[in-house]
Design goal:
The protein is mostly helical and 183 residues long. Helices cover 21% and strands 2% of the residues. The chain binds a DNA duplex (11 and 10 nucleotides) through helix 3.
Length: 183
DNA sequence: CCCTGATTCGC
DNA sequence: GCGAATCAGG
């Protein structure tokens, strides 16, 4: 039996198709299965593919053909200098405090349904969905166009700040008499 | 933080 | 030939 990670003609063909289609290496790797994105990239270059179609689904790096300047991998020097440690540095910016939201129940507006304006940051597919991304469903789950919000979510928060507010709406007593609260 | 592709080199 | 490790950039 063929190994899962073997580059069969069909796999290569699919690789070419997806690569030309504009999918990123990681997405192609996920689609193929049992292969890492490095494997895909390596194969792509080995096949002579590159540059594919610009303006793709995830054109993170629009530029083509790297100027090739980095020695890549330094066998002599493991990593004692700042060569591989500089990336770890990160400046701590004034983070936005989590909205305390004390008591806000002035919902005198009935709001027929949901007129909530969703700031479509970047919808993502199930594949692109990461653990730290907002899982707010968008569209019908039965359609292939189903996506998730994908915005940044705080730690322990399945949704972004905006959707979290919607998901965690108070009891359900919106316009009802909420003066009576069951103990 | 995450992501992307490019490159090198040991296997 | 293959791909992990690494690099470099967004």
């Amino acid at each position: 039996m063929n190994e899962a990670g073997a580059w069969t003609d069909e796999r290569v063909e699919l690789l070419k198709k997806l690569w030309s289609d504009g999918l990123s290496a990681s997405q192609i790797a996920a689609e193929l299965g049992n292969v890492t994105r490095n494997a895909v990239i390596g194969k792509v270059h080995r096949l002579g593919l590159s540059g594919r179609a610009k303006s793709a689904a995830a054109p993170a790096t629009p530029r083509n053909a790297a100027p090739r300047k980095a020695p890549a991998r330094a066998p002599s020097h493991p990593m004692n200098n700042a060569a591989g440690a500089t990336r770890g540095t990160h400046a701590l910016a004034p983070h936005f405090a989590t909205q305390p939201e004390a008591d806000i129940e002035a919902e005198q507006a009935p709001r027929p349904s949901e007129d909530v304006v969703i700031p479509f940051s970047e919808r993502v597919t199930i594949m692109e969905l990461r653990e730290y991304m907002c899982r707010w469903p968008m569209g019908d789950p039965t359609t292939p166009e189903f996506r998730f919000c994908g915005a940044r979510s705080q730690t322990g928060m399945p949704y972004c700040s905006h959707h979290a507010r919607i998901a965690y709406q108070p009891a359900a007593d919106r316009r009802r008499d909420r003066s009576k609260v069951r103990a």
